[in-house]
Amino acid sequence: MAGGMVIIASRLLTYSEGSMAAIRWNGRVPRDKIRRLYEGVAAGVEDMELADDVGCSLYARCESIVRVTVGYEEGRLPCPECGEEMPLGDDGFRCGCGRAVGWAEFRKSYKDRQLYAANAIGVFQAFLDGYPGDSTFGEKIVRIDTLIHSFHYRYSRTKPKRPSPSDDTVVNRPTGANLIEGTLTEVILFLDGLSSIEGYAGGKRAWMGTIGMANGGEVLSRKGHGAK
Fold first, then answer.
1. Do 170 and 215 touch, CB atoms closer than 8 A?
2. I need a surface site. Which of 58, 88, 101, 152 has the fewest CB within 10 A?
3. 123: number of CA atoms within 13 Å, CB side?
4. pLDDT of residue 161
5. Residue 101 pairs with which residues in a beta bridge?
6. Of 185, 170, 195, whose CA–CA distance to 220 is shortest?
7. What is the CA radius of gyration of the chain?
8. For residue 84, which phi and psi values (nearest 5 degrees)?
9. Are 61 and 8 in contact (CB under 8 A)?
10. Rounded to 5, what percent of the chain is helix, strand, coil?
C-alpha cells in the first residue's frame, strides 16, 4: 500500500503426507513486470502498487536464496511448521516438532534453479534487511535497482568491504540471473535495456562499467552496445 511499510509473509516449504517436507521455493520474477515498472519511472509515473508488487516478489525470491544458501553452507533451515530452526543431522534437517527435510531432497529442491547465493549473499541479505523499511516510491526503486544490477564477485586476494572490479576481483554473473526469469543471456540483455531507458539514470554508470567483465557480458559486445 502506498507510503506504508510492506509486510511480507511467504511459506517457503510445504508438506507432503507424513513428516517429511516437500520443498517449494519462490520463483524468479517475470521480466515484463519489472519492465513496466521501469518504463513508468522513465515516464514520470510513480506506480506504488506496481513497485510493491515487484519489490515483494523480489523480497520473496531473496528470502528463498538466502535460506537455501544458509541451509547448504551452515546446515540450518527454518521449520515451516513451527518456525523454529531445524539443524542438520545425520539424516537431514529435523525439527523438535517432528517435521523433517532430507538432505538429498533439500539439494534436489534448488538444483539448477539459480537459488544458491554463493559470494553474493550479502547483496540479497541487504535487500531483505532494507526493503521493508522503504516507504517512498523513490526509496523502493533505488533498492530494487541496486539489487538487480549487482554482481557476483570472486576474490583472488583480500575481500573488499565494498566489492568493485579491480585486479583483485573477478566479476561473475549478475545477481539478476538469480532473480529474474530467463537465461543468462536473456537476463543480461534485459538488464542492459533497463539501464538505458530514457529518463532513468539509476545504476546505469556502474552497470556499464562492470557488465563487460562479467560472465556472459560478451553478448553485449557482440551486439555492439553495453559496456565500453
1. no
2. 88
3. 26
4. 41
5. 93
6. 185
7. 19
8. -75, 160
9. no
10. 45, 15, 40
Q: What is the pTM of this model?
A: 0.82
* CA pair distance 69, 94, nearest whole angstrom: 17
pLDDT, residue 200, reads 53
What confidence tens digit (pLDDT) does each residue in 58-92 have?
Answer: 999 999 999 999 999 999 998 878 889 999 998 89
Where are the chain's structural domains? 13-222
- Euclidean distance between CA atoms 53 and 47, whole angstroms: 10
d(CA 30, CA 51): 14
**Strand 100-101 versus strand 13-15 pairing type:** unpaired
Burial class (CB in 10 A: 0-12, 13-18, 19+), 156: exposed
Q: 205-217: b or e for each residue (b if 16 or more CB lie within 10 Å)?
A: ebbbebbeebbbb
Q: In what order do the strands lie in the sheet with 85-89?
A: 76-78, 85-89, 92-94, 100-101
Q: Which three cell numbers stand for residue 176?
A: 539478476
Q: Any idea of the CA torsion for 169, 173, 179, 185, to the nearest 10 degrees?
A: 160
Tell me the residue ranges of DSSP E strands in the chain.
Answer: 13-15, 21-23, 76-78, 85-89, 92-94, 100-101, 151-155, 169-174
Cell of 87: 539443524
How far is Cα 34 from Cα 54, in angstroms, rounded to an integer? 6
C-alpha 110: how far from its chain's center?
A: 14
The H-or-E segment that residue 6 falls in is none
Beta strand pairing status for 13-15 and 21-23?
Answer: antiparallel
